[in-house]
Every structure is written in C-alpha cells, then in structure tokens.
Amino acid sequence: MNMRIIYSICTLLIASATQAQLHDSLAEVQIQAHRFQQYKAGYRSIYIDSSMRHAYRTMTLADLLAHTSPVSIRSYGYSTMATASLRGSTAEQTAVLWNGFNLQSQVLGVFNFSLFPVEWIDDISIQTGGNGALFGSGAVGGSIVLNSKLALNQAWNASAAFTTGSFGFNRYYLHAGYSGKTYAIRTKIMRLHSRNDFPFINTTTGDDRMQRMTNSNQQQWLATVDQFWKLSARQTLQINSWWQRSEQLVPPAMTESSSDAKRTDNIFRTAINWKYGDPSKYIALRSALFSERMQYSNNSTDIQSRVHALSSINEVEYHTRLAENLKCHGGIHYTYTMADNTGYVKRQSITRAALYYGTVWNIRRWLLQHTARVEAANGSVVPFMPSLGIEYLWLKQVKLTANVARSYRLPTLNEMYWQPYGNRDLLPESGWNGDIGLKIHSNTTQAAIEAGVHYYERVMNNQIMWLMRGNDHEPVNAKQTHTRGAELFGKVSYALSDKLKAVINSQLNLTHARNLEAIRPGDNSANKYILFIPRLGHLHQFSLNHKKFSIALSHQYTGMRFTSTDNTQAIDAFHTTDAAATYRIYVRKHLFALTCNVFNITNQVYTIMPNQPMPGRNFQFTLSYHL
Predict the structure, then answer these.
(1) Are 218 and 192 in contact (CB under 8 A)?
(2) Rounded to whole angstroms, how far apart are CA atoms 266 and 247?
(3) 505 has a pLDDT exceeding 50
(4) DSSP per residue over 12-33, as a string?
(5) Mean pLDDT computed over 85-97
(6) What count of other Cβ atoms lies within 10 Å of the Cβ of residue 602?
(7) If residue 430 lies in a helix (H) or strand (E), which one and from where to where?
(8) Positive or negative CA dihedral for 64, 581, 186, 178?
(9) How sure is the predictor about 34, in pLDDT bands with cuts at 50, 70 and 90?
(10) Cα–Cα separations (whole angstroms), residue 469 to 300, 420, 427
C-alpha cells in the first residue's frame, strides 16, 4: 500500500467536500478535556465494558487489557514487568496517555502496566493505529488513553475493600472524597503484598513434577490525590498527584536454579490541567512533572543498577470553532528529560519541542479530520507528521471509516547512551500506516448490536531492535518492516428485564508482521516474522448484570509467537478462561459487596515470554464497602 498516494487522495477528497459543503452543518460535537478524545475520525476506538472493569478491578491494567481487549501484553512472569503492544507493534511503539501526558519512559521507552491498578482510573479507551501528529513519539501501533474524572455536587463519598487470594495475595484499599458546587477532591490509598509462590511445571527439563516459584515476593504502596476546581463559569483547574513504591523480588527463569535479584521502583507524578473558555473557544495549559527511580540488584551476577529520570512536560493549546461545522486546534509542546544511570558515562538529557494543529469538519454525513505535527529533538528535526481521517455515515446504521497517517519513534536514552553498545547515531523510526473499516450498529429499546471489521497496513523504516552482540545486547536499526492485519468484532447488549442486562462481546485479530530485509548480513531474518507478535488472537466475553449481582466470563486465545529472528524458535499458543461473580447488599445508603474471581479456570500451563512460567488456577475474594 503506497501511503503517500492514499494521503494525496484523502487530501483531495477533504478539499472538494469542504468547498462544496462548508456551510452545511450537523449537531454540535461536544468538546472533551483532551484533543485525543476529539480527533479520532477514521480510527477505531475501544472502550472496556464496565462489567469487565469491575471483574478485574483488584488486578493491574496488564491483567485487564490482556483479557478484555486486543492489546497484546508481554509479561516477564506473574506480577513482574509487563508491557503492551497493538497491531504488531513493539512495546516502545504503544503510547500510554494519563490525563493527557505520555507515560512512556524516556529511558526505557516502555511503560510497566503491572504497576497500574485498574481501580485507579475512571476512563480507559484504546485507539488503534498510528498517529504521530496527535500523540507524538511512540504512537505507532496505537494508544491507550487513561483519564481521571471528578464530578461536582456529589457530596461526601467513601469506600474500603480487602482482597485475599492464592499465593499469599493480600490487598487493602481506602478511598474518600468530597464534591461540592465548585470543588471536588478524592484520595485513594492502597497497600499490597504477595508471596507469588505458585506451583508450576518446568517445561524446559522434561520433568512433570511440580516446582514452586521462589524469590518472588512483591510489595506495593500507592497513594493518589485528585482535585478539581470550577474557578468561574468559564475557568477550571484540575491537579492529579501520584506516589507509588514497589518492591519486587525477581524470580528465576525456568533455565535458572535460583535468583536473588530485586527491583525497587519509586514513582512520583503530578499533572496540572487549566482551561479557560467555553466549548466553542478555549485555551488549555497543561504541565506535568514525573520523577521515576529504579534500582535493580543481582548479587549472583554482580549487577547493581540505579536509574533516576526526571521529566518536565508542558503544553499550551488553543481550540476554536471557525464555523458551526468546522473546528480546529493548535498547540506547542515541550518536554525536557534528564537521567542519571549507572549504565551511562555521565548524566544524559533530551529536549523535545513540537508544533501541532488539527481540524475537524462535519459535512452532512461526512466527518473529515486533518492533523499535523513538526518536532525537533536535541536540535534534530523529525520528518513532518501528517494524518487524515474520514468517516461516512451510510444508511444511518453503517459507518465507513478510513485513515492514513505518518508515525515515528525517537530513540530512548538507553538506546543512545547505554554502555558499552549505546548508539548515538541511531535513526528515529518512521513510517506510514493506513486503515479502512466498516461498523454496523442497531439500537432498539431492548437490544443494542454492534459489529465491524478493520483492515490495516503499516511500513516502518529504521525500526530499532536489541540484538545479541557477544554476551551483551546492542540496539540496531532494522531497514524496513511491514505489518498488515485485520480485526473483526461484535457486541450484543440485551435487556432481559428492567433490572437484568446481558452482554456478549467477541473479537478476532489477525496480524502479519515481517522484516522485509535482513537485519544483519547473513542472519536469515529477511521476510521472517517479527519477534513475540502472535499472528492470531481472539477473545470472547459474557456478562450478566443486576442491581444485586453480576457475573462475568472471559476467554482468550493467544497464538504462537516466534522468539528468534530466523523463526526457528517459538512459544506455543495458549488459551485462558477467567470468571468473576459479585453479590451486593444495600442497607439504606450503604453498599456491601462480595466478589469472587477465578483465574485460569482450566489450569493451563503456558508462558508469555520465554522460560517465564505463569500461574495455574487461582482465586481471589474481595469484600468491599461503599458509602
């Protein structure tokens, strides 16, 4: 697929449609808090069903996404490092936005989803497909958007929960908040500890006898404060603060007899969002400060590693409506990150500055979108990043969508400065991606049906990969990679009565991701599949919701994944099934609830990453109180 040709055609379509229909209009589109929620024409947006979020509320974002969405989670063992990818991308090519700020580490390039509890976020959405103009560096395969929401006029509210489960899992949770006419505040506190000493079969030895995981204890402390002010009829301010400490003993791989490794993370994040204006015209200022400290020790290999990264992220953005059916925005972005790392010769830093803009037209049955971005990193200009999106409403129940965009990823500090093989001459990843889709929806007073299909392609140049060099690894630019795939999905919601609702949801994902040329001369990687990307995946969900009880079932299949560049080694496919049931008791304004979760019901033996075992059947019980 020639993305430049598609881009030119889409530009002509938008120009002609705008010239002919500029004065026609549709109903006003409500402006949301962030541009990510406004400029998504032509893209597929996925929202996690509330019943599934409730079923996994005591788990991490890694668990939720792995079992309820097309996101591919790469976990290095139970409760350890977990990264995400979309549409055959790498973990570094999946943007993660928290209240408008990218959480991807400027040092590692990834975000650890095992440190983010589901209960700590109010709104979770997934946008598939790359869009460097909208999201910036790292938004190649897609983006995961996490938002905190505070409502006014809700008075006092509080909740508490205790969870206990298999392998010494215990979790304590407290929440308290107040919401008045012009001010709202909410505080959440969590304490978690677990032995994680689950039994497993070591598939590398050929011995079917059970072993028990060792050196796998985990502890976490987490506290957040969210505040919202309505300063005037046209002015609002929101401040979100996050503190977290995690201590994780790193268990041995199945090829190791023991481990004494340990990882400690100390995280502090604060974000400020100020907005002045009304839905038709407003200015927004956003600023965030992220401090992340990580210490890793392994006495048996004599490794002592310490990292401290400090990032300042700032944006000024202006939104306006030029006509009843035409709105636009423009902004300035600036990020400065400095990092001290025992793997570097000295302290290193990176400075990024960007200009971006976007327009959206509503023209009868058409929704047309154009965004663009220009960015410089440490003085070097990134190629121009445009994107175009089109939606057409056909027969009122059928929507046709298409988009084409350029996306990119800048090298991380580790890729440039890690000793001994960090490479300051690495080129930024860049490429084009396109997507066409069809969505059908039908709503009645009793039922809602939604189904669709998307086909996508992506060509990336200079994709960065870490490859073996002697006994160590080094980052190199692969010449070119090509990814194509299809997504099929369907959802049925049916009201069995005024109080009882059933939901069925299914998704099928086909991914074909290859290196078009050899990464190194003679390494037999040309036209081979990219590592750790499943070619087939599907999930199926069922939920039954009542005021007094709810039941949720989730089944997921993950296909085979190659682990060597010549595709001679692979991890077997696997499938897992989870279930959750909740019973609620109401006593005036008080709500008591008991939830039971069963994970891996069929007791499957599987691994997500090589030689990293995952637990068999296990349980959790949660007792909660809400005021």
Answers:
(1) yes
(2) 9
(3) yes
(4) HHHHHHHHHHTT---SPPPP-S
(5) 92
(6) 10
(7) strand 429-443
(8) positive
(9) low
(10) 22, 11, 19
DSSP label at residue 74 = E
Q: Is the pLDDT of residue 578 over 90?
A: yes
Asked if residue 158 has pLDDT above 70, the reply is yes
pLDDT score at 488:
96
Helix or strand holding residue 507 (H, E): strand 500-515
Structure tokens at 590: 């008080």
**pLDDT of residue 31 exceeding 50:** no
Is the preceding peptide bond at 420 cis, omega within 30 degrees of 0? Answer: yes
Taking the C-alpha atoms of residue 296 and residue 135, their distance in angstroms, rounded to an integer, is 31
Looking at this protein, which amino acid is placed at residue 547?
Answer: K
* 417: phi then psi, degrees, rounded to nearest 5: -125, -5
pLDDT single digits (tens) 308-324: 999 999 999 999 999 88
* Percent of the chain clearing pLDDT 90 (strictly above): 67
Closest of 147, 40, 142 to residue 98, by C-alpha: 147
> Which one-letter amino acid corresponds to residue 153?
N
CA 472 vs CA 106, 162, 419, 469, 550: distances in Å: 22, 44, 10, 5, 50
Residues contacting residue 59 through CB under 8 Å, at least 6 positions apart: 117, 118
- Dmax (CA) of the chain: 74
CA-wise closest residue to 264 among 241, 277, 248, 250? 248
Give the whole-angstrom CA distance, residue 163 versus residue 183: 32
Q: What percent of the chain has pLDDT over 70?
A: 94
Measure the CA–CA gap between 107 and 337, rounded to whole angstroms.
Answer: 9
User: Around 326, how many Cα atoms within 13 Å sit in the side-chain half-sphere?
Assistant: 11
Q: Full-prediction pTM beyond 0.85?
A: yes
What is the residue-averaged pLDDT of the chain?
A: 89
User: What would the mean pLDDT of 140-154 be, rounded to a whole number?
Assistant: 90
Residue with tokens 């790193």: 250
- Specify the amino acid at residue 66: A
- CB count within 10 Å of CB 373 equals 26
Q: What are the structure tokens assigned to 563, written together? A: 């682990």
Scan for tokens 């010549």, then name that residue: 566
Written as one letter, the residue type at 368 is L
SS3 402: strand
The more confident residue out of 62 and 16 is 62
Distances (CA, A) of 80 to 112, 218, 252, 514, 536: 9, 9, 12, 28, 25
3 state DSSP class of 137: coil
H or E element in which residue 280 lies: none
What does the pLDDT read at residue 469?
A: 77
**How far is it, in rounded angstroms, from Cα 69 to Cα 47?**
9
Alpha helices in 275-360 (DSSP H): none
Check residue 502 and report its DSSP letter. Answer: E
Over residues 360-372, the mean pLDDT reads 93
Among 27-41, 311-325, 376-390, the minimum mean pLDDT is found in 27-41
DSSP string, 548-596: SEEEEEEEEEE--EE-STTS--EEPPEEEEEEEEEEEEEETTEEEEEEE
Tokens of 392: 């057409």
CA 191 from centre of chain: 24
SS3 472: strand
- CA dist 324 and 251 (Å) reads 59
Residues listed for the chain: 627
Whether the Cβ atoms of residue 36 and residue 90 lie closer than 8 Å to each other: no
